[in-house]
Write a structure and sequence with these properties.
- Helix content is 55%, strand content 3%.
- By secondary structure, it is an all-alpha fold.
- The chain has one domain.
- Strands 1-2 form a two-stranded antiparallel ribbon.
- It starts with 8 loop residues before the first helix and ends with a helix.
């Protein structure tokens, strides 16, 4: 079954509505992150797509990521609770809820505005070129997983 299309306004707005249900006091159903840390964690995916602030993996590591990690990230198969994450995605320090929330909403809106054609064949930070379906699966699935983690 295909995942909802994050590139459509309807799906993006639905995700944003879920984000807007969060408060600084929202508690996770599982895991160790506080809600502001989760929002910052979700922003990392977009930082990797739009910003040049995370070091890119070397050729060997990119090969390993494409071989072992990519299939679980870009397919429709859902993430398991309490699964591992890459070091760049681990948020250890406290974050400002409203700042991270607004950054994430802006990234989602930018992604929807650019559309799936912009992403079709776009190079990802860790996995090489992805098609629009792989980008959609990666972006939507990650957001849905963490919003579900926080009960919205």
């Amino acid at each position: 079954m295909a995942l909802p299309n994050i590139f459509t306004k309807e799906v993006s707005d639905s995700i944003i509505n879920r984000i807007n249900q969060l408060t600084p006091q929202t508690q996770a159903k599982w895991g160790k992150m506080a809600v502001a840390q989760m929002l910052a964690h979700c922003n990392v995916t977009y930082e990797m797509a739009y910003e040049n602030i995370h070091p890119k993996p070397n050729a060997f590591m990119k090969f390993i990521l494409k071989l072992l990690v990519k299939p679980s990230v870009v397919t429709e198969k859902t993430y398991k609770q309490n699964g591992g994450t890459a070091p760049q995605f681990v948020i250890k320090d406290d974050k400002k809820f409203e700042v991270e929330k607004q950054r994430l909403i802006a990234y989602i809106q930018k992604t929807q505005s650019l559309g799936e054609a912009h992403f079709d064949g776009k190079e990802s930070h860790s996995f090489g070129a992805l098609n629009k379906t792989e980008w959609n699966n990666m972006l939507y699935k990650h957001l849905d997983h963490h919003l579900t983690q926080f009960g919205v």
